[in-house]
Amino acid sequence: MTTLGVTVLTAETTKQASLLVGGERNTKLRRDDRVRAGGPGAFRRVWPWGCLGLIGSLLIALASPRVVNGGAITWWYSPSLFSGRSASLAVVYGGMLALSVAWLGLGRVLARPGGVRQFELWIVGALWLLPLALGPALFSHDVYSYLAQGTILHLGLSPYHETPAVLGQLGHAHVLAAVSPFWRHTTAPYGPLFLALISLIASISGSNLILGVLLIRLLLLAGIVLLVMFVPRLARVLGADPSRAVWLAILSPLVLLELIAAGHNDALMVGLMVAGVTLALERHPLLGITACALAATIKIPAAIGAVFIAVAWARTLPTGTARLWFLAKGAAAGAGAIAVISVATGLGLSWVSTTLFSTPAKVRLAITPSTGIGWTAGAVLHDLGITASSRGIESALGLIAFGITALLGAVLLWRVRLDNLVACLGVLLLAAAAGGPAAWPWYFTWGLVLLAVCPRPGRSVALAVALAAAVFLVKPSGTLALPLGTAPVVIGVYAVMTAAAWYTWRRGNDDHGTAGRAPNVSGGAPSALARS
Length: 532
Prior knowledge:
Layout: H1 2-9, H2 15-35, H3 39-68, H4 84-111, H5 118-134, H6 142-154, H7 173-178, H8 192-205, H9 209-237, H10 242-249, H11 253-261, H12 266-281, H13 285-296, H14 303-314, H15 320-344, H16 355-358, H17 369-383, H18 390-415, H19 421-435, H20 445-451, H21 455-458, H22 461-470, H23 487-511, H24 527-531
């Protein structure tokens, strides 16, 4: 992914042509939004997939209590429709499969003449989402770590200095019992705004963990609402199909299951970041920078968005003095927003520490490239009779991956312009997810939501299939479905995917007579934006 991003986005761009094409597409897409053929025929094509996805969502919600009940948590409902945990687990997987197939089928309807109107997508998405939002936390126990960290802050302590284990001594052993033992002695890796919001939720829910989980879900749904508001707008700016962008960025199983059903705060971070990028491309760059800075106080990767917006907009100004002045205003807006949040929450700048990066590094995943390659190399060396530490190799490769990601970021920052801002930022966030210490599947939503609004990635069948398959990489219990021993196979799959992606990009360039030049991944900004 990193190599592909460097190749595709660092060559010369056909800027003037992309701006013209983008403007023409915007006019057409706005007209299509009003008169998009839909009608009864289109509705008849949509509702079977909508019903199948709803069935899948209901199956997941109904069977999951028996999968997760036990220990510190017993969900507020537990239907006796399915006997035993094994049968319930099979039903959950069946529901996941039904939801994924329904989503892919809906994508095929979108590709046909007439497509799907946006309000139909909203209805389908709401029906799919509601059962998952009311069900127990699946695919991760992070939501209980959030509650523990919010409770620590509510008690007047800093979750950046105290771990959830302290709750056992403060009369909140029930909260501690819900936290995965793996994370009970780990400080918070999240931003102060998020922890302050969770502290408020902890003060409302008290000892009721179920109410706490539902309130966190309600908070995360605010991130989905932001995506609903801004994804279509951003797609129009880039000359992409808004309906297809909504389908790919919001209704995908990766978002519904790994963000909402699991209760991950990435939903809120991504929602704020997409809002910021959209505002920036709609000629409100300082508001965009501020929104991305606020997103960084949820989770730090969103800070990259603020930097890219500032640099891209500075390049539109005619003189060096004007550019420096704008960068100063952008830095003041971003740093000011972070400072206000840090002071208002009472946490100061203590949250800006190495724990933001070291905490995720405690997990060893076969799907993390540095871990998978390191483990594989260690195993091969061991078979050859050479003594080598797999963990040592993994650590070294992790540093190399960080360096490559940083280098890619520098190259993209040097190349970024308004017309390729979204594509550059999306590729870098994907690289950051892959090159980080733990490549959980939902981390890839950081960049995928942005690439979904770009015309070429938005039409990629391979990307859609990969999104549907990614949800099966994590078990409903929250552990990775692939043990470390599968790392060689995973690395082989990565190699095949990289080669296939490279071939696809090269073939696409050749077909359009642009071999050796960067394709217009962003689709071009509208002409009004170009004149800015």
